[in-house]
Design brief:
Elements (H helix, E strand, L loop, with lengths): L2 H67 L4 H18 L6 E10 L4 E11 L12 E11 L4 E9 L8 H15 L11 E8 L3 E2 L4 H4 L8 E2 L43 E4 L2 H9 L9 H12 L21 E9 L5 E15 L4 E16 L7 H15 L3 E7 L6 H9 L6 E4 L2 H21 L1
Parallel strand pairs: 4-5, 4-9, 9-12, 12-13
Antiparallel strand pairs: 1-2, 2-3, 5-8, 6-7, 10-11
Helix pairs in contact: 1-2, 3-5, 3-9, 6-7, 7-8
Length: 453
Amino acid sequence: MNYKASLIQLKKYNSDQRGSIMPMFAILGVMLMVIAGAAVDYSRAVNNREKMAHALDAAALTLATKLSTSVMTDSEIDTLLGEAFAANIQTLGLDDVAISNLTHNVDPDNGVIDIATTVSVPTQFLSMGGIGPDNLTVHVKTEVNYSRFNVELALVLDVTGSMKYDIDTLQDASNDLLDTLIPEGTDESDSKVKISIIPYSQGVNLGSDASTVTNGDASGNCVTERLGEAQYTDDAYNYTPTDASLVSSSYFGGGSGSCPNNSMSLLPLTNDRDALQTKISALDDGGGTAGQTGVAWGWYTLSPNWSNVWPTDSAPGAYDDDELLKFAIIMTDGDNNRYYDQDIEKCGWKYNYSKNKYEYTCYTVTGWSEVSESQSYSNESSTRQRALCQAMKDEGITVYGIYFGTNTSSAGAKNMSACATDASTFYQANSSSELISAFGNIAKKIQAIYLAK
């Protein structure tokens, strides 16, 4: 090959080499872009996983709250979980990802639910040119406790004359509590929470059962308190005293006809929202304050010893039931000023017709009598109220005390503080908004207690 021909061949070789390198650079450039973009794809997937974990936690909490108040089927759990999860996903801006395999596993023995799902996140760089996957699959799971407990709650409400301008507030507060513990739409057969309502003033209206439990000593439908060895117990109304000569009418009776009206009669434990709302809407004011009677009858609605009085569906559970929690909320805005006794001695000026003059004399009033007294922390009615609260707490009932008023040193405030299980279950509400808030906070506390147990 001559020199000229060789030179021409070399030029052709150099030209061919440049032509082969250019495609290689192009391919390498794409690969570098994919590699650099992969970090973006994976970062997006991790970010979406964090958002999904938050959405799943929120959905799980919604489900746990519902499971804690209601019995649910697997189908109902699936529906609620799916709706709650989808709503939270949308809120977090994950509309463009595909959610699949949302599963749950319920452990009823330990009150635990496991929830898991996967999310498919589209890739923007890895999928270029078919080099990487079109989607990255991310797995998320969570575990949450729910309550396996049933709840019984007595709502003991002061409807005395001093509540004249605050009954609407009391109704709002009670309805808020109801909405938290027995949400709207809860089926009676599924609800785990039952509530009793005990409006009280100078006593409690027990309706047609008043005559039965007092052995005919009640005035109308009004019941007050008991005396004797069973005074600070929840023994059944027909309990037999140690001294068999003492019949029921001697230790459980009336003494007052000034109880709340028939529309405000005691409502035993129920999960019927309509019945509870009807009772709350009927609340009205009137009468003096015998707080010990409200506490006593609130306790009786929670006591298994009184199952023979209440309807079958309202029968309280046993104190030693490991799957039952009992609570009482006692609310007042005033100080106790009434108590009841039997065969009491009274003294005063009476006209002696035989001597035609007034004489100061003492005499015995047979049967039950209402005794008015000055408001005081140490008066008879307050002392009895605190004794009943303590006896109720001794049975394992958690008591919340609410004083509605501004005077922290009043007898009412001190009584509610003493009745409460501890400092954390006592509330002083200085205004209407604070009363509503107190009921709401207590409802959430009760909910938190049975969620945590």
